[in-house]
Design goal:
Strand order of the largest sheet: 2-1-3-4-5-6
Order of helices and strands: EHEHHEHEHEHEHEHEHEHEHEEH
Number of strands: 12
Structural class: alpha/beta
Largest sheet: 6 strands, parallel
Amino acid sequence: MIEISNKKILFIAPKFYNYHQEIIDYMESNGADVTFFAEDIYTPLYRFSNKIIPKLADSIKKKYIDMIVNDTVKNAYDIVFVIRGGILSPYVMDKIKINLPNAKYIMYQWDSNNQSKYEDIIKYFDIVKTFDREDSKNFNIEYLPLYYSKKYEDLKYIKKNKLYNIVFFGAYHSDRLEIIKQTISFCDKNNLTFNHHLYITKMGLFRQLVLGNIKFKDLKLFKTYTLNTSEIIDVYRKSFAILDIELNIQNGLTMRTFETLGAGLKLITTNKNIQNEPFYNQQNVMILDRLNYKIDLNFFKNDFLDDKDFVQYSFKNWFNNLFRE
């Protein structure tokens, strides 16, 4: 395993919920000196110009990338750790490699190549691992599924006060709205409770309304604010099953999959690839056909079946496996 204690680490990753911060905290608690750059550019000007003035957005993006490259001139990093790497073209990687010729380069993909297009930068890394079995086969890189953190594992022992039969958290994309509407109808017919939080930005909601992709009658199904991890966990504490609707061009299992099962909650997922995993069993996991919506009510009659081996998907094991050559 690659040692991180007393190492200077350049960490480039998306700001996604609080996952990036949990990884930073873990590395720092193990003695690493971490410098973090968000993969996405979180400024109002960039977000606005990216849709309205592409040339301005490109200029902002170039300055941001140059800032990262210049940082590698000033700091002798021991490890360059990348998750996804959407802003790292071969041209940028060539520059970083020149500046940091002796660093160890590690990349993890929690998106599929057909989503984040990382194939061209694989060759720059000493270690590359992916959550997607298809990408693993296609690019000859190691398959490493995602993980759950201890805060979810602690929920496993809470068996009472389950207020919600099904819960969904996620951002609006693909067919999520349609599946949520079908789940509402199913729960209403069968006297089940469904707590759902379908997030979209205010600008995104306005745009989708103008395009006709969202109807005014469906506005009540959307939330224009996000929930933090503690708020999500508080709802999980009161839940029986979690609905997981993966992006339909992805193959890998979502973080929500592992958080749900790690918390001892049952999972309803549209991702049929879960059948290929050693932890799959029909008492804990129901596969939902997104083209033929059908949920078996018997799924709610049996409790979660504990799997002692699921501990291998803990965050610590994921990190150790990622940093193992």
